[in-house]
Amino acid sequence: MRENTQNLNVYEHEIPIGSRLYFGKSAKVKREIEQKASEILTDEGFSEMVTPFFSYHQHLSVNATQLLRFSDHANHQISLRADSTVDVVRIALRRLKSDKGKKWFYIQPVFRYPSSEIYQIGAELIGESDLSISLKIVAKLLGELGLKPVLQVSNIEIPHTICEILNLSIDVFERGQIEQILAQDVDWLNRLALLKSPEEIDEVSKIVPKELVKPLTNLKELAKASEYENLRIVPLYYSKMRYYDKLFFRFLSQNSILAGGGNYEIDGAQSSGFAVYTDALIEQLID
């Protein structure tokens, strides 16, 4: 009996690893970030949406091994929200059915197995494929918070096309196994791996297979449209989010991902969107 009481006392004031607790300064900074983001997105013509914690569709967004799953009243499998994009787009297209409501934002957590709680600010531009719009909104928010992170731009089409040309599995890119990719000992692939600036794309485009020219050109156009000074081209990057299929961007600082976004297609709608990772921003602003 004494042992059970001791175990209860051990966990009485503990929180699970991966979960979040905000108090004092961190709670204040979190609220300021969310308020600033809400103001910017509202000014940009977005409306807010808060989606359910439970979802039937999360396997379309992330790997099933990351989901916290259980059964509903009818024994259908559901999961805690691990990503917001698919649910936001489907709710907007199927339930609201309005041509006017195409720009939505949300400020809410997602949950990943075994006990990760991730707060984020996200937005979806349904039917809008110009990713530079999302990129500039994120850059504006980060700038107003006093942050100047590195911007990385990529095109998910490039890894997929390389896999088709060289008969590789996309798992190689998903796991970031660059050494295995470069072990192919292909000159144009090595040049792609070293590519860093938009100006270098024109030269590389002269030697790559023709299937890669258009994806590289689109990547160059996004880089130039961003008008962002601290920029890197990363053509071999592959996002693990299942719905991103074309252009993609990330803002990074001190090995932390502050935000990311890209193009995707859900239910036939070519769209774009982004997520800003609140906890990463709090760490940057409090340090």
Could you characterize what this model shows?
Keywords: Glycosyltransferase, Transferase. This is ATP phosphoribosyltransferase regulatory subunit. This protein is 39% helix and 24% strand. It has 287 residues and is of the alpha+beta class. The chain has a domain of 154 residues: 2-Layer Sandwich (BirA Bifunctional Protein, domain 2), CATH 3.30.930.10. The strands form two sheets. It has an eight-stranded mixed β-sheet, sandwiched between helices. A three-stranded antiparallel β-sheet has the order 2-4-3, with no helix packed on it. The N terminus is likely disordered.
Give a nutshell description of this structure:
With 287 residues, the protein is α+β, with helices and mostly antiparallel strands. It has helices spanning 2-12, 25-43, 85-96, 131-144, 157-166, 171-174, 178-182, 187-194, 201-205, 213-226, 278-286; strands spanning 47-48, 54-55, 69-71, 77-80, 103-112, 116-125, 150-155, 231-233, 244-253, 256-266, 269-277.
